[in-house]
Structures are given as C-alpha cells and as structure tokens.
C-alpha cells in the first residue's frame, strides 16, 4: 500500500475512533443522511448523543442553510442509528472524496445499511410538489466520481457493481409500509418511484438542461446523493434512497425557484417523510 492510500485509511479510522469514543459502547447499525429541510427527523432519536462535525477529525463543515452539521446517535424505533443531520456537497467546493468521507466513517463504525434522503426537483409530469420518490436508480451528471484515483482494497473492490445501487428489497419494503403512512391532516402518502439525476450545482438547471435530463430517463434532479451511493456500494452497504419532490422542474414550464421555496415544501412534507423512514427503520431486517 502506498503512503497516500495509508493516509486515507488512517483518516477514516481516526474520525471513526473519535465518534466511537463518545458512544459509550453503543453500536449503530443503520446510517441516515438527511437532506435539505429533512433534518428534523434527528430530533426524534431517543437518548441522543450529538457530535458536531467540527469535532470529528478530518471532517469538512456543512455550509448550507437547512443542514445542522452534526451526527446524532441514539435509538430510533428500537434500533441504534447514526444520523447525519446535514451533509456535504460537491458544489461547496469539497472534492468528491471528501463529500463521501462520512460514508466510509459510518462503515468503519459498523453500519451496514444507509437511508439517504434529499430534496429534489420533479421532472416526471406525473409527480407533484410534496410527493416522495423512492430512488430506483441514478444518473451521475456531476462530472466526477469518488472512486477516481488509487483504490483501497480495505474499503472495496476496484470496480464495484452498480446493477442494484438502490436495494430492491429495501424499496419493496418501503412501498409496502407506505400504505400505512398518513400526514398530520390524515391524508395518505403519494409514493412515487424513479430515477434520480445528480448534478454538481449550485445553480438550478436551465429549461434546456432539464428537458435533456428528462429525455435521458430522469424523473428527479438534485445536487447530492450519487457520490454517497457510489461510496456506499463500494463499501458493501445496502441503500434506500428517498427524494422529497420540493418543486416541479419541467423544462418547458420552468418558473423561477429559490432555496427558501424548496425548504418550505420540504417542511410541509416532513411528517409523512419521517413516518415512512421510521417505519422502515422499525421493520427492516439487518
């Protein structure tokens, strides 16, 4: 192993040990990465331990509104979880390897399953703002990949298989559980399923770009997730991906959009999102 490879592995181990030293023997089994406006689920974790990212060696710091920037570790629906309340983004200027660094740290802590969420624009005309979408697959349009460079055999194989990036088993369970999810007003959950297009951002896309992505087979578009999922599959973790459709991104009908509007819809959708994730954590077999 060359010195650069050893350095990366050492950073992962040092970060994991800093977190582990605060857990009093608790062993997280599920990791959750919470996207824009969805971080409140972390407040429902019982007996929580909070660890700010700035207190974890080699961690970047989240700079985006709606991202708290800390780990929350505790019990959720009877399972010990580690929650990323806020994530890192390629558009913040971090290299893709740094964006996905927390995935490898959670793996080092013993996590085998990840629930990855995001806020996304809906490109499928059958969707509407406020829907949730199970991610069945993704298209990486970021122009980068976290595995470029020397491979670390301790983390995963050189050429990881991506034929089932998002677990079919997990998606089937989420669909089954969605029938029992209702909002605070008693309304049911509209659970869509589709392909997520990951872009670099931070600018929202032009009408022509959105039309192109839809023609390529995309159903939703956002600025996260794909790198994290590639790293998770590299490390052998199983993934459930959920997008909160916060706005409609139809190229031919595009209207101006702000981050505040995205956050507002995510906030309205939170009760159903939280209920679905909690049901999944409760029933998933690890």
Strand and helix layout:
Elements: H1 3-20, E1 30-34, E2 46-52, E3 70-76, E4 79-85, H2 96-99, H3 101-108, E5 113-122, E6 132-141, H4 168-178, E7 191-199, H5 207-216, E8 220-222, H6 226-234, E9 238-248, H7 259-283
Parallel strand pairs: 1-4, 1-5, 5-9, 6-7, 7-8
Antiparallel strand pairs: 2-3, 3-4, 5-8, 6-9
Description:
By secondary structure, the chain is α/β, with parallel strands linked by helices. The protein has one domain (3-283): Nucleoside phosphorylase domain (Rossmann fold, 3-Layer(aba) Sandwich). 30% of the residues lie in helices and 24% in strands. It contains seven helices and nine strands. The protein has helices spanning 3-20, 96-99, 101-108, 168-178, 207-216, 226-234, 259-283; strands at 30-34, 46-52, 70-76, 79-85, 113-122, 132-141, 191-199, 220-222, 238-248. Strands 5-8-7-6-9 form a five-stranded mixed beta barrel, surrounded by four helices. β3 and β4 (79-85) form a beta hairpin. It is globular, with a radius of gyration of 18 Å. 45% of the residues are buried. The model has no long low-confidence stretch (mean pLDDT 91).
């Amino acid at each position: 192993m060359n010195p650069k490879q050893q350095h990366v592995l050492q950073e992962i181990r040092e970060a994991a040990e800093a977190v582990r030293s605060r857990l009093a023997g608790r062993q997280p089994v599920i990791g959750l990465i919470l996207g824009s406006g969805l971080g409140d689920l972390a407040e429902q974790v019982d007996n929580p331990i909070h660890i700010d990212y700035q207190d974890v060696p080699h961690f970047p710091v989240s700079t985006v509104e709606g991202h708290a920037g800390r780990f929350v570790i505790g019990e959720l629906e009877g399972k010990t979880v580690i929650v990323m309340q806020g994530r890192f983004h390629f558009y913040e200027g971090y290299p893709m390897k740094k964006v996905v660094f927390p995935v490898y740290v959670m793996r080092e802590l013993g996590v085998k399953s990840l629930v990855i969420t995001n806020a996304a624009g809906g490109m499928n005309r059958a969707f509407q703002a406020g829907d949730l979408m199970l991610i069945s697959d993704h298209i990486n349009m970021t122009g980068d990949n976290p595995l470029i460079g020397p491979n670390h055999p301790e983390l995963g194989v050189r050429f990881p298989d991506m034929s089932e990036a998002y677990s079919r088993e997990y998606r089937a369970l989420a669909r089954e559980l969605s029938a029992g999810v209702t909002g605070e007003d008693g309304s049911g959950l509209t659970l869509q399923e589709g392909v997520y297009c990951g872009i670099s951002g931070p600018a929202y896309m032009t009408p022509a770009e959105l039309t192109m992505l839809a023609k390529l087979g995309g159903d939703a578009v956002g600025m996260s997730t794909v790198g994290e999922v590639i790293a998770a599959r590299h490390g052998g973790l199983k993934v459930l991906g959920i997008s909160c459709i916060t706005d409609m991104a139809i190229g031919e009908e595009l209207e101006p959009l702000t981050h505040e509007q995205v956050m507002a819809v995510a906030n309205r959708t939170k009760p159903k999102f939280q209920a679905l994730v909690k049901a999944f954590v409760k029933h998933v077999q690890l």
